[in-house]
Write a structure and sequence with these properties.
Layout: H1 9-35, H2 41-49, H3 55-68, H4 73-145, H5 151-160, H6 165-191, H7 195-225
Helix pairs in contact: 1-4, 2-3, 2-4, 3-4, 4-5, 4-6, 4-7, 6-7
């Protein structure tokens, strides 16, 4: 027996199980890293400091992997600011953000794209492909502005829906710049307190959060109007 979209029930079950296992794996990783915090960020900072002049590059590589493992971005950005200061630290944070975006989107594409397309059916898949071609980059940029959304989880989803890797990297760079500065600057004040820098970080973060919430609301209304 075949469903209305032409996919055999056994095939649908296989894709559902595959996506469910992938989601369960991400949930476990998120619980361990974001809730239980099994990864000691302080130990990571000590390891990076031991790299000497190569410390910024080492932190970019390590932080990219940790971000893909769902370690909260604010912790990683704060560590970057603490180690490298607000200026160099912001560039390090952005490099790590792009690295995490690439890793998570590639993993999401490999693990979930075929199953997502099979479950959505040809019509919805074609519509999503058209949306990606028309505005995938700006969808990534907009998501990075939205407060309260885990960037790595969103990147896994973007990968599963076929957003190209270059759009993920560029979108992460553009969309994460304000928050990268804010979190990195906050982290840098832990080592050397600066009231103006702290105020600037808070203002940038609040402005980004408001803009992101507004953009998300407008985007949702536009999406609903096309249903």
């Amino acid at each position: 027996m075949v469903d209305p979209q032409g996919t055999p029930p056994t095939s649908r079950r296989r894709h559902i199980v595959r996506l469910a296992l992938f989601a369960a794996l991400l949930a476990v990783v998120f619980y361990l890293t974001a809730v239980q915090r099994v990864i000691d960020i302080a130990a990571v900072r000590d390891l990076v400091e031991s790299a000497g002049p190569l410390a910024p590059l080492v932190y970019v590589a390590v932080s990219s992997v940790l971000g893909a493992l769902l370690v909260p971005g604010p912790l990683l950005a704060g560590g970057s600011g603490f180690l490298f200061g607000p200026v160099l630290g912001t560039f390090v944070t952005l490099g790590a953000t792009m690295g995490s975006a690439v890793l998570t989107s590639v993993a999401g594409r490999r693990a979930g794209r075929d199953s997502a397309r099979a479950l959505l059916g040809p019509q919805r898949t074609a519509r999503i492909d058209a949306l990606v071609r028309r505005g995938g980059l700006w969808a990534v940029v907009g998501q990075r502005f939205v407060p309260g959304v885990n960037d790595a989880l969103a990147s896994y989803a973007f990968g599963a829906f076929g957003v190209p890797v270059w759009q993920m990297a560029a979108g992460a760079l553009i969309g994460s710049a304000p928050k990268a500065f804010a979190y990195t600057a906050l982290g840098s004040t832990l080592g050397s307190f600066s009231a103006p820098l702290l105020i600037a970080a808070i203002v940038v973060y609040c402005a980004t959060a408001v803009a992101g919430a507004y953009a998300a609301h407008r985007g949702w209304r536009a999406w609903r109007s096309k249903e």
